[in-house]
């Protein structure tokens, strides 16, 4: 994955599409987080990574709100993408993000193609 290409791609999207892509990423990240716990409420076996995912969700839901509100104080596109896609020392956390982002991008592009073909 080329970080600069991803930043360029994200930067060229309309505001609503940026919000849509981030929302799709959050959905996929929640799917990745399911590996951190078992079926019971007391069966969290990887609390550190569950917390990591929660912190990303906390930050990104705010960014989505700021995008939709056209808030000029929101983080710049490159800051958001670097927060997500810069390599991490914690390779498990990196894998969670990269897997979720990869599926989000694939789903996003598929959705866009379907919409364009339907018009």
Explain how this protein is built.
The protein has 119 residues and is mostly helical. The chain has one domain. The chain has helices at 3-12, 15-33, 47-68, 77-85, 91-118. Helix 1 runs antiparallel to helix 4, helix 2 packs antiparallel against helix 3 (47-68) and helix 2 packs across helix 5. The longest helix is centred in the C-terminal third of the chain and has 28 residues, at 91-118. Residues 113-119 have low confidence and may be disordered.
In short:
The protein is an all-alpha fold and 119 residues long.
Features:
disordered C terminus; globular; single chain; 5 helices; 119 residues
Which regions have little confidence, pLDDT < 50, spanning 5+ residues?
A: 113-119
What proportion of the residues is helical, as a percent range? Answer: over 70%
Distance between the termini: 31 Å
Overall geometry: globular
Proportion in β-strands: under 5%
Class computed from helices, strands and strand pairing: mainly alpha
Number of domains: 1
| Topology, number of strands | 0
Largest sheet: none
Helix-strand pattern: HHHHH
């Amino acid at each position: 994955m080329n970080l600069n290409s991803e930043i360029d791609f994200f930067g060229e999207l309309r505001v609503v599409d940026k919000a849509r892509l981030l929302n799709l990423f959050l959905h996929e990240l929640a799917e990745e987080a399911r590996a951190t716990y078992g079926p019971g409420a007391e069966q969290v076996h990887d609390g550190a990574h569950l917390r990591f995912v929660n912190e990303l969700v906390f930050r990104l839901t705010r960014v989505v709100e700021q995008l939709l509100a056209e808030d000029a104080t929101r983080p710049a596109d490159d800051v958001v993408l670097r927060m997500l896609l810069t390599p991490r020392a914690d390779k498990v956390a990196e894998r969670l993000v990269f897997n979720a982002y990869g599926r989000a991008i694939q789903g996003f592009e598929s959705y866009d193609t379907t919409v364009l073909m339907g018009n």
